[in-house]
Amino acid sequence: EYGITRPKGYTVSYHATPEMEKHHFGQTHPMKPWRLTLTKSLVTAYGMPFAMDNYMTREATYEELNAFHSSDYLDYLITAAPEDQPRDIENPDKEVKYNLGGSDCPLFHGLYNYCSMSAGCSLDAARKICSNQSDIAIAWGGGLHHAKRYEASGFCYINDIVLAILQLLRTHPRVLYIDIDVHHGDGVEEAFFSTDRVMTVSFHKYQPDQFFPGTGGLEDNGPKSEHNPGAHHAINVPLQDGITDEQYQYLFENIIGTINQRYRPSAIALQCGADSLAGDRLGRFNLRVQGHGACVRYCKSLGLPMIVFGGGGYTPRNVARAWAYETSIAIGADTRIPETIPEHTPWREHFIHDTLFPTLEQSMSEPRHNRNSEKRLRDIISHVHEQLRFVAH
Length: 393
Ligand code: ZL4
Ligand code: CA
Ligand code: ZN
Prior knowledge:
With about 400 residues, this protein is α/β, with parallel strands linked by helices. It has helices spanning about 35-45, 60-65, 70-80, 110-130, 160-170, 185-190, 245-265, 290-300, 315-330, 360-365, 375-390; strands spanning about 10-15, 55, 135-140, 175-180, 200-205, 235-240, 265-270, 305-310. Helix 8 packs parallel to helix 9. The protein is globular.
């Protein structure tokens, strides 16, 4: 209807399941799996499924999860029930095992099922890339970058990204991981800390003790020992409140462009957490949907096979806008889709404004003060260039 057709000689796959979206973290918990339903409804209203290979995600198996996570942790995750939730008042001394059952990572009905579907969607995406059946594979249900080998962290229980990158490493010599979620991609960074086959780059708000998880300083670039191949292979771009599209795009293209020339990855894993958008319930940046999408467009322009993951994003209408727009970029339809949200979009009233690209004023009552100076951005870039001089190419 919008003249959206399959890109020629180019395959985009979309991996999702409506089953994942039915899970609830709890009434007022910021993570709303339902945002995936809203995203799919917008993608479909624009007619984008015609231009992609659409796959219904399966659950990842225990063995697949075990490729990164410890058996002890997985065994507890399978059996832990919402009744095991430590209750602060009634049960003040009850230990929180594996960081499960607190307010960030609650135990809820169908938790294991939710986790294995998220991982299944990212693993399916990775396999399509490995077999060259997709040029871009989309896994909006994945992107849960904080989960550790043996513990849950920051709304993340299973690190689907680590599992997908392990899969990519079977056929790809070097993988570049890029993370534009407003939080530091600590779990992925830590998992590949000692290898030079994965370079991790996270852009995030950095304010230790004030903003989760508190890691990812400019000088944190991997093991300090030169004998460790992972040295210099963790890049962190610590930012402050209120960064704009122009500043973010300048940093992103400069840093990713330089890394691409220097490191020469053969595949990209891009985490597109939408909590870096203006007006996010947890985020602090002033990015618009266009600025967020520009990162996906730039990565696509490098011409490498790529997985795009979801991640954070706590204002569902904006998550749906960003991920639908980024889906249109993947299929090369971004210049053809109308800016006005289609009349027949289910839950259209949830978008409040009928545009795909709300202004800053439409996203929030008062845009955040920009605390990123031009001088600081230049210092970040020069530090990153300095690190890359140590990276063999
Ligand atoms: C909530 O309203 O900074 C959880 C979490 C639950 C419901 C009612 C409980 C009220 C905000 C957050 C008590 C909430 C106390 N409910 C939360 C140090 C903290 C300990 C927990 O995007 N309290 C922990 C995690 C971050 C902390 C961010 C981002 C994930 C990702 C990838 C994870 N944790 C302080 C906060 C609420 C809640 C309201 C919350 N939690 C905001 N930020 C955090 O990178 C998916
Ligand atoms: Ca990040
Ligand atoms: Zn986040």
